[in-house]
Design a protein that fits this description.
Aldolase_TIM; globular; three-stranded antiparallel beta sheet; FMN; TIM Barrel; Nitronate monooxygenase; NMO
Length: 354
Protein backbone atom coordinates (compact mmCIF):
# COMPACT_ATOMS: atom_id res chain seq x y z
CA UNK A 1 0.00 0.00 0.00
CA UNK A 2 1.25 3.49 -0.87
CA UNK A 3 2.35 5.39 2.21
CA UNK A 4 0.60 8.65 2.99
CA UNK A 5 1.92 12.05 4.00
CA UNK A 6 -0.65 14.41 5.49
CA UNK A 7 -0.03 18.10 4.78
CA UNK A 8 -2.15 21.28 4.91
CA UNK A 9 -2.56 20.90 1.13
CA UNK A 10 -3.89 17.32 1.21
CA UNK A 11 -6.34 18.33 3.94
CA UNK A 12 -7.44 21.48 2.10
CA UNK A 13 -8.14 19.73 -1.19
CA UNK A 14 -9.06 16.24 0.03
CA UNK A 15 -6.45 14.30 -1.94
CA UNK A 16 -4.29 11.44 -0.69
CA UNK A 17 -0.90 12.73 -1.81
CA UNK A 18 0.70 16.22 -1.83
CA UNK A 19 1.34 16.08 -5.58
CA UNK A 20 -0.18 18.36 -8.24
CA UNK A 21 -0.25 17.76 -12.00
CA UNK A 22 -0.24 21.27 -13.42
CA UNK A 23 -2.68 22.58 -16.02
CA UNK A 24 -0.69 22.39 -19.26
CA UNK A 25 -2.36 23.74 -22.41
CA UNK A 26 -3.19 20.95 -24.93
CA UNK A 27 -1.72 18.36 -22.52
CA UNK A 28 -3.90 18.30 -19.38
CA UNK A 29 -7.13 16.86 -20.72
CA UNK A 30 -9.59 14.49 -19.02
CA UNK A 31 -7.37 11.43 -19.53
CA UNK A 32 -4.28 12.78 -17.74
CA UNK A 33 -6.26 14.73 -15.12
CA UNK A 34 -8.40 11.73 -14.13
CA UNK A 35 -5.39 9.37 -14.10
CA UNK A 36 -3.62 11.72 -11.67
CA UNK A 37 -6.74 12.03 -9.52
CA UNK A 38 -7.27 8.25 -9.43
CA UNK A 39 -3.62 7.84 -8.35
CA UNK A 40 -4.27 10.13 -5.36
CA UNK A 41 -2.81 13.42 -6.62
CA UNK A 42 -4.54 16.59 -7.78
CA UNK A 43 -5.01 16.61 -11.55
CA UNK A 44 -5.76 19.96 -13.17
CA UNK A 45 -7.54 20.44 -16.50
CA UNK A 46 -6.04 23.20 -18.65
CA UNK A 47 -8.90 25.31 -19.98
CA UNK A 48 -7.11 28.30 -21.55
CA UNK A 49 -6.90 26.43 -24.87
CA UNK A 50 -10.53 25.25 -24.65
CA UNK A 51 -13.70 27.00 -25.75
CA UNK A 52 -16.48 27.12 -23.16
CA UNK A 53 -18.32 24.11 -24.70
CA UNK A 54 -15.04 22.16 -24.81
CA UNK A 55 -14.43 22.90 -21.12
CA UNK A 56 -17.99 21.83 -20.30
CA UNK A 57 -17.40 18.52 -22.13
CA UNK A 58 -13.95 18.04 -20.54
CA UNK A 59 -15.33 18.46 -17.01
CA UNK A 60 -18.15 16.00 -17.75
CA UNK A 61 -15.67 13.46 -19.20
CA UNK A 62 -13.29 13.84 -16.23
CA UNK A 63 -16.19 13.23 -13.82
CA UNK A 64 -17.02 10.05 -15.74
CA UNK A 65 -13.42 8.85 -15.33
CA UNK A 66 -12.89 9.71 -11.65
CA UNK A 67 -14.87 10.42 -8.51
CA UNK A 68 -11.84 12.02 -6.84
CA UNK A 69 -11.19 15.79 -6.50
CA UNK A 70 -9.67 17.57 -9.51
CA UNK A 71 -9.11 21.16 -10.60
CA UNK A 72 -9.49 23.46 -13.59
CA UNK A 73 -6.88 26.05 -14.56
CA UNK A 74 -8.33 29.26 -16.00
CA UNK A 75 -7.36 32.69 -17.22
CA UNK A 76 -8.86 35.22 -14.83
CA UNK A 77 -8.70 37.85 -17.58
CA UNK A 78 -10.66 35.80 -20.15
CA UNK A 79 -13.78 37.58 -21.41
CA UNK A 80 -15.95 34.62 -20.32
CA UNK A 81 -14.23 34.07 -16.94
CA UNK A 82 -17.49 34.65 -15.04
CA UNK A 83 -19.31 31.97 -17.08
CA UNK A 84 -16.46 29.52 -16.54
CA UNK A 85 -16.52 30.17 -12.81
CA UNK A 86 -20.28 29.55 -12.78
CA UNK A 87 -19.63 26.26 -14.60
CA UNK A 88 -17.07 25.15 -11.98
CA UNK A 89 -19.50 25.99 -9.19
CA UNK A 90 -22.38 24.19 -10.92
CA UNK A 91 -20.29 21.08 -11.58
CA UNK A 92 -18.82 21.11 -8.05
CA UNK A 93 -15.22 21.16 -9.30
CA UNK A 94 -12.98 21.10 -6.22
CA UNK A 95 -10.18 23.48 -7.25
CA UNK A 96 -9.90 26.60 -9.42
CA UNK A 97 -6.31 27.41 -10.34
CA UNK A 98 -5.16 30.56 -12.11
CA UNK A 99 -2.01 31.64 -13.93
CA UNK A 100 -2.93 35.33 -13.54
CA UNK A 101 -4.43 36.02 -10.14
CA UNK A 102 -8.20 36.53 -10.03
CA UNK A 103 -9.53 39.63 -8.31
CA UNK A 104 -11.06 39.62 -4.84
CA UNK A 105 -14.68 39.32 -6.01
CA UNK A 106 -13.99 36.22 -8.14
CA UNK A 107 -12.10 34.56 -5.27
CA UNK A 108 -14.95 35.33 -2.88
CA UNK A 109 -17.57 33.93 -5.26
CA UNK A 110 -15.64 30.67 -5.72
CA UNK A 111 -14.94 30.25 -2.00
CA UNK A 112 -18.54 31.03 -1.03
CA UNK A 113 -19.55 28.13 -3.26
CA UNK A 114 -17.05 25.64 -1.87
CA UNK A 115 -14.37 25.88 -4.60
CA UNK A 116 -10.75 25.98 -3.37
CA UNK A 117 -8.81 28.83 -5.03
CA UNK A 118 -5.12 28.26 -5.84
CA UNK A 119 -3.37 30.88 -8.00
CA UNK A 120 0.14 30.32 -9.37
CA UNK A 121 2.56 33.10 -8.47
CA UNK A 122 6.17 33.96 -9.26
CA UNK A 123 7.15 36.30 -6.41
CA UNK A 124 6.57 36.67 -2.68
CA UNK A 125 4.79 40.02 -3.14
CA UNK A 126 2.25 38.36 -5.45
CA UNK A 127 1.66 35.63 -2.86
CA UNK A 128 1.02 38.28 -0.19
CA UNK A 129 -1.46 40.03 -2.48
CA UNK A 130 -3.53 36.94 -3.37
CA UNK A 131 -3.45 35.72 0.25
CA UNK A 132 -4.88 39.09 1.33
CA UNK A 133 -7.62 38.64 -1.29
CA UNK A 134 -8.58 35.26 0.21
CA UNK A 135 -6.70 32.67 -1.89
CA UNK A 136 -6.65 29.32 -0.09
CA UNK A 137 -3.14 28.31 -1.23
CA UNK A 138 -0.57 29.21 -3.88
CA UNK A 139 1.63 27.34 -6.33
CA UNK A 140 5.05 28.98 -6.61
CA UNK A 141 7.11 28.11 -9.69
CA UNK A 142 10.85 28.66 -9.76
CA UNK A 143 12.85 29.48 -12.87
CA UNK A 144 13.60 25.80 -13.59
CA UNK A 145 9.96 25.27 -14.53
CA UNK A 146 8.65 24.92 -18.07
CA UNK A 147 6.37 27.29 -19.97
CA UNK A 148 6.04 30.83 -18.61
CA UNK A 149 8.59 31.18 -15.88
CA UNK A 150 10.60 33.67 -13.84
CA UNK A 151 14.29 34.13 -13.25
CA UNK A 152 14.62 33.03 -9.59
CA UNK A 153 15.43 29.39 -8.78
CA UNK A 154 12.98 27.37 -6.68
CA UNK A 155 15.57 26.98 -3.89
CA UNK A 156 15.37 30.74 -3.25
CA UNK A 157 11.88 31.63 -4.44
CA UNK A 158 10.19 28.95 -2.29
CA UNK A 159 11.61 30.06 1.09
CA UNK A 160 10.95 33.72 0.22
CA UNK A 161 7.27 32.90 -0.34
CA UNK A 162 7.05 30.66 2.73
CA UNK A 163 8.38 33.52 4.86
CA UNK A 164 5.79 35.91 3.40
CA UNK A 165 2.47 34.03 3.77
CA UNK A 166 0.80 31.61 6.13
CA UNK A 167 -1.39 29.75 3.61
CA UNK A 168 -0.28 26.40 2.11
CA UNK A 169 2.44 26.78 -0.51
CA UNK A 170 2.93 24.18 -3.26
CA UNK A 171 6.39 24.20 -4.86
CA UNK A 172 6.86 23.92 -8.64
CA UNK A 173 9.91 24.01 -10.89
CA UNK A 174 12.48 21.20 -10.91
CA UNK A 175 10.46 18.43 -9.22
CA UNK A 176 10.26 14.88 -10.56
CA UNK A 177 10.88 12.37 -7.76
CA UNK A 178 10.58 11.55 -4.05
CA UNK A 179 13.79 13.39 -3.19
CA UNK A 180 12.26 16.60 -4.48
CA UNK A 181 9.03 16.09 -2.54
CA UNK A 182 10.95 15.38 0.70
CA UNK A 183 13.11 18.47 0.10
CA UNK A 184 10.09 20.71 -0.59
CA UNK A 185 8.34 19.48 2.56
CA UNK A 186 11.50 20.12 4.60
CA UNK A 187 11.52 23.72 3.34
CA UNK A 188 7.97 24.02 4.68
CA UNK A 189 6.01 23.56 1.45
CA UNK A 190 2.75 21.62 1.59
CA UNK A 191 3.34 19.72 -1.66
CA UNK A 192 4.92 19.81 -5.11
CA UNK A 193 3.56 20.65 -8.56
CA UNK A 194 4.94 18.96 -11.68
CA UNK A 195 4.28 19.60 -15.37
CA UNK A 196 7.00 18.05 -17.53
CA UNK A 197 7.11 14.91 -15.36
CA UNK A 198 3.37 14.32 -15.92
CA UNK A 199 3.63 15.19 -19.62
CA UNK A 200 6.10 12.29 -19.80
CA UNK A 201 3.77 9.55 -18.57
CA UNK A 202 1.90 6.84 -20.44
CA UNK A 203 -1.38 8.59 -19.48
CA UNK A 204 -0.41 11.80 -21.30
CA UNK A 205 -2.02 12.18 -24.73
CA UNK A 206 1.10 13.84 -26.21
CA UNK A 207 2.21 11.82 -29.30
CA UNK A 208 4.81 9.13 -28.54
CA UNK A 209 7.21 10.60 -31.12
CA UNK A 210 7.16 13.89 -29.18
CA UNK A 211 7.68 12.12 -25.85
CA UNK A 212 10.75 10.42 -27.33
CA UNK A 213 12.03 13.86 -28.34
CA UNK A 214 11.81 14.94 -24.68
CA UNK A 215 13.43 11.75 -23.36
CA UNK A 216 16.53 12.34 -25.48
CA UNK A 217 17.19 15.76 -23.93
CA UNK A 218 19.73 16.74 -21.26
CA UNK A 219 19.83 19.39 -18.56
CA UNK A 220 21.20 22.03 -20.97
CA UNK A 221 18.58 21.42 -23.67
CA UNK A 222 16.03 24.12 -22.81
CA UNK A 223 15.97 27.85 -23.55
CA UNK A 224 14.07 30.67 -21.88
CA UNK A 225 12.86 32.62 -24.90
CA UNK A 226 10.91 35.87 -25.12
CA UNK A 227 10.50 35.39 -28.87
CA UNK A 228 7.69 32.83 -28.54
CA UNK A 229 5.11 35.21 -27.10
CA UNK A 230 6.92 38.21 -25.64
CA UNK A 231 7.14 36.74 -22.12
CA UNK A 232 9.93 34.51 -20.70
CA UNK A 233 8.96 31.00 -21.82
CA UNK A 234 11.08 27.89 -21.12
CA UNK A 235 10.98 25.51 -24.09
CA UNK A 236 13.04 22.68 -25.58
CA UNK A 237 15.81 23.75 -27.93
CA UNK A 238 14.63 23.04 -31.49
CA UNK A 239 15.49 24.43 -34.92
CA UNK A 240 12.33 26.56 -34.75
CA UNK A 241 13.24 28.00 -31.35
CA UNK A 242 16.78 28.74 -32.55
CA UNK A 243 15.30 30.49 -35.60
CA UNK A 244 12.89 32.48 -33.39
CA UNK A 245 15.77 33.54 -31.15
CA UNK A 246 17.61 34.96 -34.15
CA UNK A 247 14.54 36.59 -35.71
CA UNK A 248 13.51 40.24 -35.49
CA UNK A 249 10.50 41.41 -33.47
CA UNK A 250 8.84 42.56 -36.69
CA UNK A 251 8.86 38.97 -38.01
CA UNK A 252 7.54 37.76 -34.66
CA UNK A 253 4.61 40.17 -34.79
CA UNK A 254 3.69 39.07 -38.33
CA UNK A 255 3.79 35.40 -37.26
CA UNK A 256 1.70 36.22 -34.18
CA UNK A 257 -0.94 37.99 -36.28
CA UNK A 258 -1.15 34.91 -38.54
CA UNK A 259 -1.47 32.63 -35.52
CA UNK A 260 -4.19 34.86 -34.05
CA UNK A 261 -6.25 34.28 -37.20
CA UNK A 262 -5.66 30.51 -36.99
CA UNK A 263 -6.64 30.49 -33.30
CA UNK A 264 -9.77 32.51 -34.11
CA UNK A 265 -10.94 30.09 -36.81
CA UNK A 266 -10.07 27.01 -34.71
CA UNK A 267 -12.04 28.18 -31.66
CA UNK A 268 -14.83 29.94 -33.55
CA UNK A 269 -14.06 33.10 -31.55
CA UNK A 270 -15.35 36.41 -32.82
CA UNK A 271 -12.87 39.24 -33.47
CA UNK A 272 -14.69 41.25 -30.80
CA UNK A 273 -13.94 38.51 -28.24
CA UNK A 274 -10.26 38.40 -29.22
CA UNK A 275 -10.02 42.18 -28.86
CA UNK A 276 -11.89 42.06 -25.53
CA UNK A 277 -9.48 39.37 -24.26
CA UNK A 278 -6.52 41.48 -25.39
CA UNK A 279 -7.83 44.54 -23.57
CA UNK A 280 -8.44 42.47 -20.41
CA UNK A 281 -4.90 41.06 -20.63
CA UNK A 282 -3.51 44.59 -20.99
CA UNK A 283 -5.43 45.82 -17.94
CA UNK A 284 -4.39 42.90 -15.71
CA UNK A 285 -0.67 42.77 -16.54
CA UNK A 286 2.35 44.87 -17.36
CA UNK A 287 2.53 43.55 -20.93
CA UNK A 288 3.15 45.86 -23.88
CA UNK A 289 0.79 45.77 -26.88
CA UNK A 290 3.57 43.99 -28.75
CA UNK A 291 3.56 41.23 -26.10
CA UNK A 292 -0.25 41.04 -26.15
CA UNK A 293 -0.24 40.50 -29.93
CA UNK A 294 2.58 37.96 -29.62
CA UNK A 295 0.58 36.04 -26.99
CA UNK A 296 -1.45 34.67 -29.92
CA UNK A 297 1.63 32.64 -30.84
CA UNK A 298 1.50 30.43 -27.77
CA UNK A 299 -1.61 28.28 -28.28
CA UNK A 300 -0.90 27.59 -31.96
CA UNK A 301 2.82 26.89 -31.61
CA UNK A 302 2.19 24.58 -28.62
CA UNK A 303 -0.64 22.82 -30.47
CA UNK A 304 1.60 22.11 -33.48
CA UNK A 305 4.23 20.52 -31.24
CA UNK A 306 2.25 18.85 -28.43
CA UNK A 307 -0.91 17.77 -30.28
CA UNK A 308 0.05 17.41 -33.93
CA UNK A 309 3.57 16.15 -33.16
CA UNK A 310 5.12 18.62 -35.61
CA UNK A 311 8.31 19.57 -33.79
CA UNK A 312 9.53 21.50 -36.84
CA UNK A 313 6.57 23.91 -36.77
CA UNK A 314 5.78 23.98 -33.05
CA UNK A 315 7.35 24.69 -29.69
CA UNK A 316 7.62 22.21 -26.83
CA UNK A 317 7.29 23.76 -23.37
CA UNK A 318 9.63 22.04 -20.93
CA UNK A 319 11.21 22.40 -17.54
CA UNK A 320 14.94 21.85 -17.06
CA UNK A 321 13.92 18.67 -15.26
CA UNK A 322 13.57 17.04 -18.71
CA UNK A 323 17.27 16.17 -18.42
CA UNK A 324 16.54 13.94 -15.41
CA UNK A 325 13.66 11.95 -16.92
CA UNK A 326 14.20 8.71 -18.85
CA UNK A 327 10.93 6.76 -18.67
CA UNK A 328 7.16 6.94 -19.26
CA UNK A 329 5.41 5.43 -16.21
CA UNK A 330 1.65 5.61 -15.64
CA UNK A 331 0.49 8.33 -13.25
CA UNK A 332 -0.15 5.66 -10.63
CA UNK A 333 3.32 4.14 -10.99
CA UNK A 334 4.88 7.61 -10.85
CA UNK A 335 2.99 8.81 -7.79
CA UNK A 336 3.44 5.51 -5.91
CA UNK A 337 7.19 5.57 -6.38
CA UNK A 338 7.49 9.28 -5.52
CA UNK A 339 5.59 8.69 -2.28
CA UNK A 340 7.59 5.57 -1.33
CA UNK A 341 10.86 7.40 -1.99
CA UNK A 342 9.78 10.56 -0.15
CA UNK A 343 8.69 8.63 2.96
CA UNK A 344 11.98 6.66 2.94
CA UNK A 345 13.98 9.92 2.68
CA UNK A 346 12.02 11.56 5.49
CA UNK A 347 12.52 8.51 7.71
CA UNK A 348 16.25 8.50 6.90
CA UNK A 349 16.47 12.17 7.93
CA UNK A 350 14.84 11.28 11.25
CA UNK A 351 17.55 8.65 11.80
CA UNK A 352 20.22 11.38 11.60
CA UNK A 353 19.17 12.72 14.98
CA UNK A 354 21.91 12.02 17.55
Amino acid sequence: MTQLLKTPFTELVGVEHPIVQTGMGWVSGPRLTSATANAGGLGILASATMTYPELEAAIAKTKQLTDKPFGVNMRADASDAQERIDLLIREKVKVASFALAPKKDLIAKLKDNGVVVIPSIGAAKHAVKVASWGADAVVVQGGEGGGHTGGVATTLLLPSVLDAVDIPVVAGGGFFDGRGLAAALSYGAAGVAMGTRFLLTSDSAVPDSVKQEYLQRGLQDTTVSVKVDGMPHRVLNTDLVNALEKSSYAKGLIAAARNAMKFKSMTGMKWSTLVKDGLAMKRSSDRSWQQIIMAANTPMLLKAGLVEGNTEAGVLASGQVVGMIDDLPSCKELIDRIMADAVARINALGDLRA
